[in-house]
Amino acid sequence: MTELVLADGRTLDLRLAGPEGAPALVYVHGTPSSGAFPSDIGAAALARGMRLVSWSRAGYSTSSRRAGRSVADSVTDAAEVLDRLGIESACAVGWSGGGPHVLACAALLPDRFRAVASLAGVAPYLESQGTLDWFAGMGQDNLDEFGASLEGEAEVRAYLAPLGAELRTITADGIVGSMGSLLPEADRAHLTGAFGDELAQDFREAVEVSIDGWVDDDLAFTREWGFDLESIGVPVTVWQGSDDLMVPFAHGEWLAAAIPGANARLLPGDGHLSIAVGRAAEIVDDLLARG
């Protein structure tokens, strides 16, 4: 873990692995989470000789907050990280809440990102009105959370505050109890092994300083994203599982239809966690082939 001081004085919690000068894979984490690499995706990338680059988004872990940020605003941080590391172009994968942010990179930095993957990524709330029932199929916890975000910052912060306190000490055994309405059997099966400990650590790191990143993500998802999905010209693969209770299957279908030329990997039986854990090698190979 490295503290990167940005040009505007904010800091990012930067994570790096693999050889300098190797083809880069940027990992964009979920909501809430930290910049720690998922072990399966990380291992697949390193086995293929890639360099891993990730950071905790503004307000998460030890990264400085950027209050009022939109999804598009994250692109300036991505560009500065690549510049500082001397990386001309990269592939990128965004999981869950990282999906919108990786799509922003594809739309706004097409000269820097050769191909991107959205794993169980949420669709835009405002831009999909009238064409997507955004809440249909979500577990009750997410219905409550995003309902609060639509009410405003004070409301979503009040909703998330006790959850953040719980996540600061959560263990793998506690995840099912805390997030039961969001976990189909496909996902629960992965929480009994090492991945459960890894996910719990990511949750703890995400909120160790504050819940600001979580609050700002939820607000950004339900406001204007700040870019046009139809403007994306780089290769995009949309990965979505049919059994996902955090980000429903219809979100993946909607994104695949909205992004020009998107490669749709809409998979029966996969959930929100299983799609990344069980398909890591496929995801990395697809990025390399398309980028």
Task: Note down, in words, how this protein is organized.
The protein has 291 residues and is an alpha/beta fold. The protein has a single domain, classed as Rossmann fold (3-Layer(aba) Sandwich). Helix content is 41%, strand content 15%. The protein is built from 12 helices and 8 strands. The protein has helices at 39-47, 74-85, 98-108, 140-151, 153-167, 172-178, 185-188, 194-206, 212-221, 249-258, 274-277, 280-290, and strands spanning 2-5, 11-17, 24-28, 51-55, 90-95, 113-119, 236-241, 263-267. It has an 8-stranded mixed sheet, sandwiched between helices. Helix 10 links the parallel strand 7 (236-241) and strand 8 (263-267). Helix 5 (153-167) packs across helix 9 and helix 6 packs across helix 8 (194-206). It is globular, with a radius of gyration of 17 Å. The model has no long low-confidence stretch (mean pLDDT 95).
Search tags:
12 helices, eight-stranded mixed sheet, globular, single chain, Rossmann fold, 291 residues, alpha/beta
CATH superfamily: Alpha/Beta hydrolase fold, catalytic domain
Q: In percent terms, what proportion of residues is strand? A: 15-25%
CATH class: Alpha Beta
Please give the share of residues in helix: 40-55%
> What series of H and E elements makes up the topology?
EEEHEHEHEHHHHHHEHEHH
CATH architecture: 3-Layer(aba) Sandwich
Mean pLDDT: 95
Question: What can be said about the biggest beta sheet?
Answer: 8 strands, mixed
Number of domains: 1
Q: What is the approximate shape?
A: globular
Number of helices: 12
Number of separate strands: 8
Which structural class should the secondary elements be placed in? alpha/beta
